[in-house]
Write a structure and sequence with these properties.
The complex is a heterodimer of chains A (213) and B (169). With 213 residues, chain A is an alpha+beta fold. In chain A, 52% of the residues lie in helices and 24% in strands. Chain A has a 5-stranded antiparallel beta sheet. The longest helix of chain B has 54 residues. The chains are: A alpha+beta (213), B alpha+beta (169). The interface between A and B is large, with 48 and 57 residues.
Chain lengths: 213, 169
């Protein structure tokens, strides 16, 4: 290759590098930001789904006549790991065993914990044992469900919510339907306009479904 | 005077520079066009991704609270049990408080309002539940008032989700 061709080739190579490097960097940055966003959402969805499945697997274990404290780690839903803690909390009026179920799934930086009550009715000679579950509660705080202190903290937080629920239940029970409705009606002019329009119809439903006992 | 071959070895002539620049400008033109097309495509994708992100954030906040709620108050099925939609949703949360989500089309926002189930004034939560959402509808889909679907749309992008309330009254 003679001198002139070398010059042109060098000039072209350097210029092409100068053009393509920033282009490739720009494309890779935009691509990776979107991938990160999608992965984060995927983690949130998967951890929630796995924790919900974990609760169901805990209920199935109770139906299968499993009793006592259980701390099960690294169980799998597909290839997603989750932890399950089944904590006995005493006996009910019908001598049924009472439990708190904790199901936890952690993916990346996202944690989802579901806590629920379960009653294991007994004695049943053979499985499946009748199990009733109620009052689910969730949190995204990164508690460790294998630590007594963390479990107590979760039970306390949930207890606060349940006490709040008791207050509203007691309020509803203590009022007559008309008193309950008139108290709600007074809020109409303080509501945002988007809600105020149908408020009378909403109050009618609330009044009809007011807790009586 | 140098011989012709020696003069060539000394550097690049103006004609060679012009030829090089012409070839380069053609390549640059093709690359620039491709680059701007890609940028436009990326901007369009980013815009759709931003809208979807708004949907996800709003969905997540609403679904988290709704999953643990106790009953849907509004909307309810029609008298003939056909489905019914509205731009607002009123329900009793885990604590038995009355919560409302409602859409403000002019602001493209979803707001949350806590209405005490007892004495006290309604309080609108300062931070919107969702932003950049052109339309929103909640559809009641079950007779036990525990299944609700959420539909959001902005600029031709749609999101549809459904929530079943885990707890009962």
């Amino acid at each position: 290759m003679n001198g002139s061709r070398k010059g042109i080739a060098l000039f072209l190579v350097l210029a092409l590098v100068a053009i393509f490097v920033p282009v490739l960097m720009f494309l890779s940055q935009t691509g990776s930001a979107q991938v990160r966003q999608a992965m984060k959402y995927h983690e949130v969805q998967q951890s929630e789904s796995a924790a919900l499945s974990g609760t169901n697997s805990g209920l199935s274990r109770l139906r299968g006549n499993l009793t006592g404290l259980q701390q099960l780690n690294q169980l799998l839903v597909g290839d997603v790991p989750y932890d399950l803690t089944i904590k006995p909390t005493g006996q009910g009026l019908l001598l049924q065993n009472l439990y708190h179920l904790f199901s936890r799934c952690m993916m990346g930086r996202h944690t989802f914990i579901l806590m629920s009550d379960a009653e294991q009715l007994q004695p049943d000679p053979t499985p499946p044992v009748t199990v009733l579950s109620h009052d689910c509660w969730n949190t995204v705080e990164p508690y460790d469900i294998n630590l007594v202190a963390d479990v107590t903290a979760m039970e306390n937080l949930r207890g606060q919510d349940l006490m709040g629920f008791e207050v509203t239940k007691n309020y509803e029970r203590s009022k007559t339907k008309s008193d309950y409705a008139s108290e709600l009606q007074t809020k109409q002019n303080k509501l945002p306009t988007e809600l105020a329009g149908d408020w009378n119809a909403i109050v009618d439903i609330l009044k009809e479904e007011k807790l009586q006992f | 005077m140098f011989p012709t071959s020696e003069r060539r070895k000394a550097g690049v002539t103006l004609v060679e520079m012009v030829v090089g620049a012409m070839i380069l400008s053609i390549i640059f033109g093709i690359t620039a066009r491709w680059f701007f097309m890609q940028r436009e495509y990326q901007q369009r994708l980013t815009h759709i991704s931003d809208i979807q992100d708004n949907f996800r954030r709003a969905n997540w906040l609403m679904v988290q609270e709704l999953q643990m709620a106790r009953t849907i108050i509004w909307p309810r099925l029609n008298a003939d049990r056909s489905i019914r939609s509205d731009t607002k949703l009123v329900f009793k949360d885990f604590n038995g408080q009355i919560i409302a989500y409602y859409h403000i089309p002019a602001e493209q926002r979803i707001r949350r309002c806590v209405i005490p189930n007892g004495p006290g004034n309604p309080v609108v939560t300062a931070r919107p539940v969702g932003e950049g959402i052109a339309s929103l509808s909640f559809t009641a889909a079950s007779i036990d008032n525990r299944l609700i679907s959420l539909h959001m749309s902005t600029g031709g992008v749609h999101s549809l989700d459904a929530v079943y309330l885990t707890n009962s009254e």
